[in-house]
Fold this sequence. Notes:
This protein is α+β, with helices and mostly antiparallel strands. It has one helix spanning 19-46; strands at 50-62, 75-78, 84-102, 107-129, 134-135, 141-142, 147-152, 155-166. It starts with 18 loop residues before the first helix and ends with a strand.
Amino acid sequence: MENGNSKAQPEKKGWKVNFFDIIIIVLVIALAGAFVVYKNHKASSGAAATKEITYTVEITDLEKNTEGMIKKGDTLVDKVKKYNIGTVESSKFYPYEKSSIDQETNEYKMSEVPDRYSAAITVKVECEDNGASYVADGGFPVRVGHEVSLLGPGYSGSGYIIGIEREDA
Length: 169
């Protein structure tokens, strides 16, 4: 007997793989794969061909003095995210009309709002086609019905994209 101890020393066991270890390993591999796919997608999307498109955005509820401020060549940016959304090609002003209910006939009618105007601004921009929409500088989606909050030199407004013209169509 060694040391007067009759009990045998327990063997030291190595690392055992359990269910939670497998989950962690799978998650790490999935995250690494997602990172590689994301990086490859970003690199390939940078090489995508761009095309120049012209779209029209209607902004509403403007004051009369705004008409002289919107000029061809003005660079427009998104008020919120500061995307470059294009360059003004032309603009057309007309009286602002708002939907209201006629109390006598109980029908909705369009009526002019005094001293307020709307503008249809034609904008030209370089875009990539991602399949669902055109995407301008920095990720601004250009598609009909998309809400736009634009900022130009000395003026701003909000409205919707009401038309798109493609150069290849």
